[in-house]
Amino acid sequence: MEVILKQDIKKLGEKDDVVSVKPGYGRNYLIPQGFAILATESAKKVLAENIRQAQFKQDKIKKDATELAAKLEGLKLTIGAKAGETGKIFGSVNSIQIAEALRKQGFEVDRRRITFETEPKVLGEYVANLNLHKEVKVQVPFVVVAE
């Protein structure tokens, strides 16, 4: 019997896979637990349409991320921070401050997508890594200056 998996199942398949299983396993475990549905012709057509729409949405998200990455190329940010006489920052510069600086420049980037190669603890130049999409990443240099 063929079923369409609703979620990943170890040693059987991934979500939206059409797999062939023994009738007892499908009727007594997979379908009642909500892990799969019966693979009828109409269910296969619905699955194909859902996959097509999901692919269209993913392509649009990737295109938007690529456009944003192109705009961010060449941008250099300046972040102000309170620092001591030796140049050591009180606290550190974090992703919230980078996201706010990007917002002031007109770019909307979620702070959870911003990481640092080295944590900014002293005044100087650093690089922020922006993960805009799983395939689109951009590096934005920034300078930490004393306020």
TrEMBL record:
Per the database record, which ranges form the Large ribosomal subunit protein bL9 C-terminal domain? 64-146
Residues forming the Ribosomal protein L9 domain are 1-46
The keyword Ribonucleoprotein is annotated on this UniProt entry: yes
Gene3D superfamilies (UniProt xref): Ribosomal protein L9, C-terminal domain (3.10.430.100), Ribosomal protein L9, N-terminal domain (3.40.5.10)
Quote the Pfam families the UniProt record gives.
Ribosomal_L9_C, Ribosomal_L9_N
Keyword list (alphabetical) reads:
Ribonucleoprotein, Ribosomal protein, RNA-binding, rRNA-binding
The entry's family comment says: Belongs to the bacterial ribosomal protein bL9 family.
Q: What is this protein called?
A: Large ribosomal subunit protein bL9
Gene name on record?
rplI
